[in-house]
Design brief:
about 180 residues; mainly alpha; 2 helices
């Protein structure tokens, strides 16, 4: 564009240089077609320069609008990004809280089950010990009874044998006295 402007300026200068200088005495005004053409060229050139300025101004305005649109889009993207991060943090915190709650409930239930198992095992042990003690006492009782019966029977036999022996001894004594 600058080259065209320079060319146009050079052409206008060339045309002006070629044009004859108006005489200081111009008794009558003569229409000069070249001057008129030169005026039209200058007007066209001025219009061209104005149009070029308008285009530059439009371009500058468009650039500003594009920059504003970019800044707005960038701000919106940054805001959306920040909101997404905040939402992700809320979701993560909520998930962590749920996991912690589930862990605590599971842990409590496991401890309850452990305590129940421990109580059941203690009850089974207590019953087994109680049963063993009852069986032990019953065995002792039966052994004591069997011992007493065996002793009583042995005593009875001993007593009977002793009585028998005494009765035999006494029965023999008169015989022996008579043999003397």
């Amino acid at each position: 564009m600058v080259n065209q402007k320079e060319k146009s300026e050079e052409e206008v200068k060339q045309v002006e240089e070629r044009a004859p200088e108006p005489e200081s005495k111009a008794p009558e005004q003569v229409k000069d077609p070249l001057a008129e053409l030169l005026n039209r060229a200058q007007s066209a050139y001025a219009a061209y320069i104005d149009a070029q300025k308008e285009v530059a101004k439009g371009y500058k305005e468009q650039q500003q609008q594009l920059e504003q649109a970019y800044k707005k889009a960038e701000k919106e993207a940054n805001d959306a990004h920040e909101q997404a991060i905040q939402e992700a943090e809320r979701v993560r915190e909520k998930a962590e809280q749920k996991a912690q709650t589930a862990y605590e409930r599971t842990r409590e239930r496991a401890l309850e089950l452990y305590q129940e198992s421990l109580n059941q095992a203690s009850e089974v042990r207590r019953k087994a010990v109680e049963q063993a003690m009852q069986e032990y006492e019953e065995s002792i009782k039966q052994a004591t009874l069997a011992r007493k019966e065996a002793i009583d029977k042995a005593w009875k036999l001993t007593k009977e044998s002793g009585e028998q022996a005494w009765s035999i001894f006494q029965a023999e004594q008169p015989i022996q006295e008579g043999m003397k």
